[in-house]
Amino acid sequence: MEAAVEVADLVVSRGGKEVLHGLSATVSQSSVTGLLGPSGGGKTTLMRCLVGVQIVTGGSVRVLGEPAGSVALRKRVGYVTQSPSVYADLTVRENARYFSSVLGAGDTTADQVIVDVGLKEQSSQLVSTLSGGQRARASLACALLGEPELLILDEPTVGLDPVLREELWEMFAALAAAGTTIVVSSHVMDEAGRCDRILLLREGNLVADDTPDALRRAAGTEDLDQMFLTLIRQRAEVA
Amino acid sequence: MSPTITWATAKRVLTQLSHDHRTVAMLVLVPSLLMVLLRFVFDEDEIFDRIALPLLGVFPLIIMFLVTSVAMLRERTSGTLERLLTTPLHKLDLLLGYGIAFALAAALQAGVATATAYLLLGMNTQGAWGWVVGVAVSNAVLGMALGLFVSAFARSEFQAVQFMPLIVLPQLLTCGLLIARDQMAGWLGAISNALPMSYAVEALQEIGEQAEVTGTLVRDLTVVLGATVIALALGALTLRRRSG
Fold it and tell me: Is residue B194 part of a domain?
């Protein structure tokens, strides 16, 4: 099966400083790939490259068989930015309906995604009056519109309580089982266990690219936090 | 670009506005209240006519400039713009959507302010009131276009509001409202000629003095619309799908 995302020798500079140093990775279809690592490691920059809003210095990024950011991809890729990408001064439903018109998805779909993320009760509430977790889910609802084949989610579970996090991860797994490819970033290491595959990024380099189980074995520990520390140290010794 | 997306965007901007009751109240009422104040400050009919008429065009420009530059800055900093630029939305859908929404808001504002000036405060013009509203709305759209453009150079709402004195006050000082443009020093006149508000004020003065639609009025309106198109084009240049 063709890879959903193919990144080759990707070099990106932001603010005059190189932040991704020749990164290569692939993401297979219908999977949940976790982009993990310490803050400032290049996770957001890599995601911006995948949706095609980042100026790239070198290398190539192909998404669903097209160059990232090409016109054909604009309905096929859903994106949730780190700060909730919904309008605080609109209700949940108004937000969903607006993005739905932009994506050509229709009002019925808009109402459905609100139910999907569990915000039915809050649908006529202004986003500014929602809790942090509800706001993140409103943002996610808008990214689900039009059934994108690839979902890029930048820290969608930040600030959520454990119950909501659990619900979202179950939803990601369900979406992946139904054929959606998901790339999700997090700096909460215990979320790594929920992914099919992990890309561990540190200071713009790929430290590890494997399944959670394989990484646990390589590091010789079950504890995910410990696993990352070990992997990062091992990598530092090699370099 | 797509008419559906443009219209959805205009509707979205208007919905955002409509949720903010205080802003709506201020948008609709402030110019009229200032007109009333002006009427008492200039207690003579002739002076009031001379000052109030151009101000009917200046207020919408200032207010729409402020509202748009802050609204657009929010889009840029909140993640919604980045999100929109990954969708099928075309830059022009966004710019025209804002344009349509604020033109409608401006029409309401200008309608109320013009009605107040004519009916309540006894303002007199030779030309028809419809032209006054028309010029006021074109000024509002110009203000919006300038606001969209400068929002690209502001990092915070603090900076955005400070572009108002920088962009608007020089125009206000040289537009012929305080001193007739033909009495200005040559270099000041040249600056005045280069700034769009001078033409907006001249257009309103023409409506005040002439019953007929004059060539000057048509030319002035064309200049204002031309400046709007240029500002929108510059604004479009600042909306990059890819950034560093």
Answer: yes
Q: Is residue B44 part of a domain?
A: yes
Global pTM reads 0.88
Query: Which ipTM did the prediction report?
Result: 0.87
What is A3-76+148-238's CATH topology? Answer: Rossmann fold (3.40.50)
Query: What domain range includes position B100?
Result: 3-238
Percent pLDDT > 70 in chain A is: 98
pLDDT score for A1: 61
Chain A hits for B15, Cβ within 8 Å: 90, 94
Q: Is residue B243 part of a domain?
A: no
Residue of chain B nearest A86, judged by CA positions: B80
Give the torsion through C-alpha atoms of A210, A211, A217, A218, to 10 deg: 10
CA distance B75 to chain A (A): 8
State mean pLDDT over A161-184: 91
B241 pLDDT higher than 70: yes
Q: How high is the pLDDT of residue A159?
A: 74
B244 occurs within a structural domain: no
- Cα–Cα distance measured from residue A21 to residue B211, given in angstroms and rounded to the nearest whole number: 70
Q: Among partner residues B4, B11, B242, which is closest to A53 by beta-carbon distance?
A: B242
Alpha-carbon distance of A70 to A103, in angstroms, equals: 15
* Cβ–Cβ under 8 Å, residues A210 and A198: yes
Q: Helical H runs in chain A? A: 43-51, 92-103, 107-116, 132-144, 162-177, 212-219, 224-238
Contact between A14 and B244 using a beta-carbon 8 Å cutoff: yes
* Residues of B in Cβ contact (< 8 Å) with A74: 86-88
Q: Which of A48, A57, A83, A102 best probes binding to B when mutated, by most B CB atoms within 10 angstroms?
A: A102
Calculate how close chain A gets to B24, using CA atoms only, in Å: 14
**pLDDT of amino acid B1:** 82
- For chain A, which residues make up each domain, given as ranges? 3-76+148-238, 88-141
For A209, the token pair is 């690219």
Closest C-alpha among B236, B238, B232, B241 to residue B103: B232
Percent of chain A beyond pLDDT 90? 61
Q: pLDDT for A17-69, tens place per residue?
A: 999 999 999 999 999 999 998 888 899 999 999 999 999 999 999 999 999 99
